Amino acid sequence: MTTAICPGSFDPVTNGHLDIITRAAGIFDEVIVAVGNNPDKKTLFTIEERVALLKKVIDDTGLKNVRVDYFEGLQVNYARAQKAQVIVKGLRALSDFEYEFQMALTNKKLAPELETMFMMTEHKYAFLSSSLVKQIVLFGGNPEGLIPPVVFESLQAKMAEVRERV
């Protein structure tokens, strides 16, 4: 059985993320969507909220071989603990590749038994990022087609809180 992890911050999960997760689920026996706690990123949603949102989104897809979890620390340590063989990373643009290539080489040095697989996102999501979606919603735009509907509801509520604080 081949297990892959799809790590990320997912703040919030977008249809671009979901594209990569769905396609990975078609390749691997088990896919673990692993929500990471990256200290370099200031997230809008707590890790618990991101996990809960992802669980709702994955439940709605009907993907039976995908589960959601979270981790702190190094991806490779988490992958080992889950007995995963592959780390799946989505790519949108050349800038993503440069960062992810560096990360993949570092991971290979730390855990030679793990492989990293890069997947290009569908072209219709190549511009999409969680940061962009947050800006759209913050300024009253409609992110239809960019995020799952359940995410939109949660994102609207969070952005209302942000607007109140400003």
User: Proportion of β residues?
Assistant: 15-25%
CATH superfamily: HUPs
Total domains: 1
Shape: globular
Rg from alpha-carbon coordinates? 16 Å
Strand/helix succession? EHEHEHEHEHH
What is the straight-line distance between the termini?
50 Å
Helical fraction equals: 40-55%
Structural class: alpha/beta
By CATH reckoning, the class would read Alpha Beta
CATH architecture term: 3-Layer(aba) Sandwich
How many strands, what sense, and barrel or not for the largest sheet? 5 strands, parallel
Number of strands: 5
According to CATH, the fold-level topology is Rossmann fold
Q: What do the pLDDT scores average to?
A: 93
Please tag this protein with its features.
166 residues, alpha/beta, 19% strand, Rossmann fold, five-stranded parallel β-sheet, 6 helices
Notes on the protein architecture:
The protein has 166 residues and is of the alpha/beta class. It has one domain: Rossmann fold, CATH 3.40.50.620. The protein contains six helices and five strands; from the N terminus they run E-H-E-H-E-H-E-H-E-H-H. The chain has a five-stranded parallel β-sheet with strand order 3-2-1-4-5, with helices on both faces. It starts with a strand and ends with a helix. The model has no long low-confidence stretch (mean pLDDT 93).
